């Protein structure tokens, strides 16, 4: 009796979680890229004071462009970089390339001169045909 009540509820929960996960990664067609989240790498390229960091964001999906890559970016200051490269929207919310597409496997690069900001991609949207 208890099982009969619970199984449909569990199925519903499972389906909801699956759909939520698909939406997060850019709907079902983005599933082609599920194992290929964009990555961000920072390399120190200037050793003065302040240091200079080169940021490289890569679309790791070889099949689909990715748009609207938002980063966790702390209190990154807009004055450090052209907003076309990195637009500061709010604390911990920056968007690269004006939200425009990075081609499959494309690397997107910009530099800033400041003590290091910790940054990582938070949300993005794959555009698979
Ligand atoms: C960012 O925040 C840190 C501490 O949270 C502070 O030391 C730093 O000066 C801030 N940077 C800017 C550009 O506001
Ligand atoms: C960033 O700095 C590196 C090392 O100085 C340089 O090779 C590269 O061209 C710079 N990139 C940009 C986008 O300015």
Automatic annotation (TrEMBL):
Which first-to-last residue range defines the signal peptide?
A: 1-28
What InterPro entries does its record include? Answer: TPD1 (IPR040361)
List, in alphabetical order, the GO biological process terms annotated in this UniProt record: cell fate determination
Per UniProt, the keywords (alphabetical) are: Signal
The protein depicted here goes by the name Protein TAPETUM DETERMINANT 1 like
